[in-house]
Amino acid sequence: MPLVRVEADRAIGARAADVYDVLADYSVHHPQIMPPDHFSNLEVESGGVGAGTVFHITAKVAGKRQRLHMRVSEPEPGKVLCETNLDTGVVTQFTVSGNGSPGSVVRMSSEWEAHGLKGWLDRLFTPRVMRRLFAEQLDQLDEYVRTLETEAR
Description:
By secondary structure, this protein is an alpha+beta fold. The chain has helices spanning 16-24, 116-152; strands spanning 3-12, 39-46, 54-61, 64-76, 80-85, 91-98, 104-113. It has a seven-stranded antiparallel β-sheet.
């Protein structure tokens, strides 16, 4: 089956553990790193931090709003966090690693099956749009964690 995979990396100016804590906290921190032009109304249904969290979020895709139903898992707690769309099976993964300095590196990736004409169009156009969206979210993540570190001092 044809798979589409999109990914983006970014150095983040904060410790890997602090970055992971922000990503895993869907009640307070994660909503702050979602690009507001593309995402809104993140509502936690159950859990709130890490594995087992279930949430809804509104996404603006190709000019249309969609309500997504997501479940969070942690295949490698403290390092890998996954969000699975319960309606489509699309998985978005965040991988956080130290980069040998006071900072870290975050990789965002999504993967899904693409079939037929819609799948062909997905393979052609979606990766470019998603890479841009990932870059925006990673920029917001970097800015947000740096703000938290500054406030903590």
